[in-house]
Write a structure and sequence with these properties.
By secondary structure, this protein is an alpha+beta fold. The chain has helices at about 20-30, 60-70, and strands at about 10-15, 35-40, 50-55, 75-79. The protein is built from two helices and four strands.
Amino acid sequence: MNNQNQISDMLFSSLRRLEAAELEEIETALAAMDCVISAHQGADHKHHFKVAYDPSCVDSHAILEKLKELGIDARMHGL
C-alpha cells in the first residue's frame, strides 16, 4: 500500500484531566514532531488530543511514545 500524500487522524486521550500549562506543552511538542501536520486539544474535553499526521513517515505509536516521554499516560482511539 502506498501511503504517500495521505493524512491519518488519531485521537489520544489522557487518563487524567490535564492542566492548562500541560495542555499547551503537549500541543507544542506534538506539533513539533516530524510528519505531524497538526495537534489540537479537544475543546470540550481537556484530556483529548486530535493529531493529524503523515503515516508514511511517522506512526501513531511514535506519537503515543512522545506523550509518554512527556509524562502523560494516554490511550489511542482511531477516527
